[in-house]
Amino acid sequence: MAWTQTELDALKSAYAAGTTVVQFDGKRIEYDSESGLLKRIRTIEAEISSQSGKAKARVGYVTFSRT
Predict the structure, then answer these.
(1) Domain residues for 43?
(2) What angle do CA 33, 17, 40 make, to 5 degrees?
(3) How many CB atoms lie within 10 A of CB 37?
(4) In 3, 17, 21, 46, which residue has its Cα 20 to 30 A from 62's Cα atom?
């Protein structure tokens, strides 16, 4: 499915505002929970990044201990 940056921005704005109702391009979508909304955001981000040829950033944490 082809998602747009406009849709992604609307989803992120709704999530930041703490609401599960999203409106964009004359559409109104209500998600059942914040976790459902966040899952959709992650799905769209992954799809957009794969279409643009950019790899998803990976983050790692290094720990050091002297024993």
Answers:
(1) 5-51
(2) 45
(3) 21
(4) 46
